[in-house]
Design a protein that fits this description.
Elements: E1 2-6, E2 11-24, E3 27-32, E4 38-42, E5 45-51, E6 56-61, E7 64-69, E8 72-77
């Protein structure tokens, strides 16, 4: 699936990934390939990404919003 993590200043990450783990307002959750459409609020915490090469990356956020649609994930983060 394709993912973009954007903050007000720049694109933090853009690429293809296998898994995204997020700090949701009501608890953490994961997005996998071909996930159902979703819009959710994010709280302060870490975003975990596992890319196609099984490399893991973490990004700290102060909150934000995620949209999942047609195997594309867009995260607007603070």
């Amino acid at each position: 699936m394709n993912i973009e993590i954007i903050n007000p200043d720049k694109i933090i990450f853009s690429g293809k990934v296998d898994l995204v783990q997020l700090p949701g307002k009501d608890g953490s959750f994961e997005i996998l390939n071909k996930h159902a459409p979703l819009i959710s609020v994010l709280k302060e915490g870490k975003i975990k990404i596992i890319d196609k090469n099984k490399n893991t990356q973490f990004f700290d956020i102060k909150g934000g919003v995620i949209e999942v649609l047609h195997n594309n994930v867009l995260i607007l983060a603070e």
